[in-house]
Each structure stands twice: as structure tokens, then as C-alpha cells.
Amino acid sequence: MPRITGLQKNGVLRKNGFAVGDEITAFDGYGYVDYLDYLFFDSKQKFDITFLRDGEVMTKRISKRDGQSMGAELDDGDIEPRVCRNKCIFCFVDQMKKGMRDTLYVKDDDYRLSFIGGNYITLTNLSPSDVDRIKRLGLSPLYVSVHAYDKAVRQKMLGNRFAGRLFDTLKDLGKSGIKFHTQIVLVEGVNDGAVLAETVNELYSLGCVSSAAIVPVGLTKFRDGLTDIKPLSLSCLNETIDFAEGFAQKSLKERGEAFVFCGDEMYIKAKRTLPSFEYYGDFCQIENGVGLVAAFVTEAKAYEPAEGRLEGVGPRAINIETVTGESFYETMVALAKYFESRLSGLKIKVRLVKNEFFGENVTVAGLITGDDIAKQVRPDDDCDLVMLPRVMLRQFDDVFLDGMTVAELSSKLKKDIVVAPSDGYEFAEMLYELYAES
Fold it and tell me: From residue 138, how far is each of 37, 47, 57 by CA, in Å?
């Protein structure tokens, strides 16, 4: 039960006689589960709160204006993730090197984190009370890993006999207004081709599913004892992209927006031209690597410095070395040339860092380690500073996947390091500021 640790001076609960130390046990008779209950009822205008004070059970009726907050601080803001019960044949956590930080081995499969942070879940561990709660709190949209409509294929891929119930659960929740964004991790010879086409068509037929992303299976070099899976072949990539683009045209005509998208990495591996910025609509799958390149490039080129910001500045001699993975390399090279043409004296060297830590099949920048950068960017490189993309580091921290810090990397390279934002507009803004201040 959460304990009230603070109350706003003019907050609703303080005005209703609540005090620090009171323990909330229920809202409107529903037992308190986690902070989502507080957030849900904080949006309501009339409800009951049951709480404990000095061992005595008390209930108060709350009435507040629309938009007015209860104004309480509770001691249970963090949600402990539910652990995944599946044994997916492609699980990336199972392919992690041993001995890394503990948090990298957590397999979460939690509907609450899906609603809060867009984490993909499988819905295989929901209890009847979980389903009722999702409906009652209106936890929408949720992000769901589907992989296949065919029950046998889905059960094989997830290693869970309950995986076959997924579409029934989607339909049930959908009737209560819950919406979904879905993903399909593509494994060649398992859920591609006709299986994929059936999956997308079935998802499309459900009015509750807003989008489907097809992403390539991620394979590291640490797969000893795991299911034998090969990287997607060129023919599989091309066939899948052709199918997805054709289906997107169908949904554009019928619904006015694309329904299915392939991850950027698939286009890059197939050496295909990425779709335009407009193709991705509201970029609902961008956190899944869908439309990242189009968004970043468009945002970066849209930036213009404030009038007079560069007045009297330049030409400047500034050499920057920026590092990236194979997937974003060609895009970054083109962007470097674009900014060099706009800022006289600016030189940007793009360093392609191969992923030696996880293996050559891993090509995204977000999985590059500090040690790989230290090995492939030399201290004698002719540059004034090294620029790293924010996606290489732990959220809200300056630590790479292998535990190396930015400060430690800077010391090894004997170079100043700046961390570039993941947003293209903010990246361009930083570049202009570095140029103006050099």
C-alpha cells in the first residue's frame, strides 16, 4: 500500500483532510495495485478513497474540478517489471554476453510498462484481473509482439503454449476500446512469406490494431546452444519490403494512412531507398526503428539558426569526428556533406564502427560499445572533438553497454567528447552552436 509522503499546499487531498503517513488502500472500492491507479483517478472528478490512518480504515468522498490534481506524493512511483514467461527462439537477452550489468538480463513483459513507455509485450502472462484492469483504466494504446497469426507458428516462436490465445485477447480488449500497435520479428523460414501475409491481413481486419511493424531478427555472436537462425537473406528482405509497401498502398486508399511498415534496417540491408518522411504518418513505430532515418534527416535539415546568430562568424576551421554503426553510416555521410556545404571550414569525418562486441550481424548504433569505439577511433586522428549519438548510452546516464563511461572513453582517445541528441533538429542545433563557439 502506498504511503503519502507529501501533499501540495492547495492540493485536493490536503483540503480534504488527508495527511502525510496515510496509506491508500483503494479507489472506488478497487484495491490499490500501483501508481497507475493514482494517475487514473487523478483524471476523475468524483470518487472514493479508502485509506489507513493509525491502523483505522477510513473512506472519504472526493470531488474536484476537471484538470485539478489530488496533489499527493506517494512512495511507490517505481513499477517493478513483470518477468517474461516466454522462451522466444530469437530473444535478444538470451544472446547477451555473460558478466554484463544485471539490468541487461531483465526480461520484462509488463502491460503497465507497455502503456507507460511503449515496451512491446506478448500478453501471454495476463490474468483475468489484469484484463479487467486494462479495460477499466483504459490503458491504451498497448504495444504487442504478434509475430504470427498461425497459432502453431506463434507458439513455436514464443516457446509458450499460451501464445495461441493472443488474437482472442486482442479482440476482447479491442471491444472495450483498447488500441494496439503491433510488431512482427521476422525469422526467415518461420514466419515470412505466406505466414507473414496472413498475419498482416488478420491484424488489419481487427479494428483495434492501428499499425504493424516488421523488424528483422537481431542476432549476436553469443548464440551457442540456441535455435539455429540465419540473418535475413536479400531475397527475403526484398520480398518482405515489396509486400509491406504494397499493403501500405492498399491501406492508404482504404483508411488514409499506411498500416504496415518495415524497419529502416531492412531497407538499409537490402540497399533499398527508404520511404519519404510523409510515408510514416505520425511515426507511431519510430521507437521500433521505423522511420528513424527519415525523421532525423528531415528534422536536421529543417533547422535554421536564429537570425543574426552566425553574423560575423566564420569561416571557422573545426574538425569533428562522429561515430556511428553500419546501418546509419551512409545517411550520416550524406548529412556531413550537407552541413559542410552550409558552414564554411567545418569538416566532419564519419567513422564507421564495426560491432566486434556483439558480432557483425549487429549494425545499429545503439548497440555499439565503448570498447569498440576505443579500438576503432584512434587518439592520433586529426579532429578537435569526437561526437557520439545519445542512443549509444544508457538512458539518463553516460554509460555504454559494456560499462565504459564517456569520461573513460575520452581519456583513452585523448579527445573531448560531445554527446549528440537523437532528435535531428537538436543535433543540427548542437552542430551550429559548436561551429559558432569554436
Answer: 11, 17, 28
Which pLDDT belongs to residue 77? 67
Pairing, β 120-121 against β 142-145: parallel
Angle among Cα 238, 244, 248 to the nearest 5 degrees reads 145
Closest CA to 143 of 112, 167, 164: 112
Three-state SS for 300? helix
Are the C-beta atoms of residues 191 and 147 closer than 8 Å to each other? yes
For 147, phi and psi rounded to 5 degrees? 70, -40
DSSP 112-146: HHHHHH--EE-STT--HHHHHHHHHHT---EEEE-
pLDDT digits (tens, 9 = 90+) for 287-327: 999 999 999 999 999 999 887 777 666 677 889 999 999 99
pTM metric for this prediction? 0.91
The string of pLDDT tens digits covering residues 90-149 is: 999 999 999 888 888 889 999 999 999 999 999 999 999 999 999 999 999 999 999 999
In angstroms, the CA 340 to CA 147 distance is 43
Cβ contact 259:207 at 8 Å: no
Alpha-carbon span 109 to 102, nearest angstrom: 17
25: Cβ contacts below 8 Å, ≥ 6 apart: 1, 31, 32, 50, 51, 52, 57
CB 199 within 8 A of CB 153: no
Q: What is the DSSP string of 339-377?
A: HHHHSTTEEEEEEE---TTT-TT---GGG--HHHHHHHS
* Amino acid 314: pLDDT: 67
